[in-house]
Design a protein that fits this description.
Layout: E1 2-7, H1 11-22, E2 27-31, E3 44-46, E4 61-63, E5 67-71, E6 78-82, E7 88-91, H2 93-107, E8 110-113, E9 117-122, E10 129-133, E11 137-145, H3 153-157, E12 163-173, H4 176-182, E13 185-189, E14 196-203, E15 206-213, H5 221-233, E16 239-249, E17 257-258, E18 261-263, H6 279-299, H7 305-312, H8 314-328, H9 332-341, H10 343-354, H11 359-370, H12 377-381
Parallel strand pairs: 1-2, 1-11, 2-8, 5-13, 11-18
Antiparallel strand pairs: 3-7, 4-7, 5-6, 9-10, 10-11, 12-15, 12-16, 13-14, 14-15, 17-18
Helix pairs in contact: 1-2, 1-6, 6-7, 8-11, 10-11
Amino acid sequence: MNDVIVVGAGPAGSTAARILAQSGFEVTVFDREFFPRVKPCGGGLTSRALSLLPPGYSDYIHAQPTEWIFEGRGTESSRSVHTERPYSHIVHRASFDQWLASQAERAGAHIHTGEAVVAIQEHTDASGYQVRTSHGTYQARYLIGADGGRGISARLLGLSRPKNGAALEAEIAVAPEIYEQWKNSVTISIAHYPWGYAWVIPRRPVLNVGVGSFRAARLPLRALLQEWIRQKLGAQATPIEILAHPLPYRHHFATLTKPRALLVGDAAGLMDTLSAEGIYSALLSATLSAEAIRDAAENDSPLHLYDQKLKQTLWPELSSAAKIGWLFYPFPGFWSKLFLENPSIIEQYLKVAQGTAPYSALLQSGRNVFLRHAHLRSRIDRADLSD
């Protein structure tokens, strides 16, 4: 019997597997795809995520932009903010995820790619789980669901599933001289995308371009993406491939554990609902999950310590981001105008991304600007995060 089975070998699953294997646990990881696999994602690592990675991550960074371009409405509505050190570190998810999985394997975890989990059943004596895959049946004392926002582990475990927005992205091959113009900056536009945003991210030697929304059900994302590409790169720009991916998130905390199972990363819906950044949450929740399983195994106790650790560390940040996003996204034109007129808010956001300031500082900085508009005072103070 395995000590731990991990469903999904993305950043969260591979990180949890690596830490547990290093601690002496017998760990098996299943991923339905073969590596290297295509993983739609802008690939932005915030600076605070780097400390959660094993040595060697720098070999997989394709760009380190120090300029952040925020666009509002109109062709002249933009603001550039420069940082002394990179606020984002861009990776290619296919090679980055494969490297993380190889680090878990190097630590002693067994990585099964091309093997999909199809059923999860708790032992009748609650001593662990039986996991059936496309290749066989396995047993484990503990289980980690790390199979993304549309994975099956949350449903099969009977745990709360995240909400899902959606994004479309494309890689654009550009001439070297064009890439040079973009290589040090990330461009974000918010004013034309209800509950969402568009981006251009440099990822040597291509540009990653996309649009996304947390409420995408009736949005023509493909048409919006094509227009965004035309606007930024011209009608001649041709996508290599257009890919879709979910944006899994929560506005309210829900338990993510069973006595011997838990959810991490996108499977847990731990995406930042302001910036849509999810890799930091994946890495941190994976680290906390490994700590919780080690503690449970040592003390023969349930895994609820994981929920407690999330509430103490990650959730306060995600809750603040959700509050800001709930106030921001319904009125992007109005807020973007304020942001463009008050670059200190943008600068504060970049400090959050770099890990040098908490979201509460951004919330306070934004509040100081928002409260100049008295008609918003009561809504900010009594923000209700329900849909």
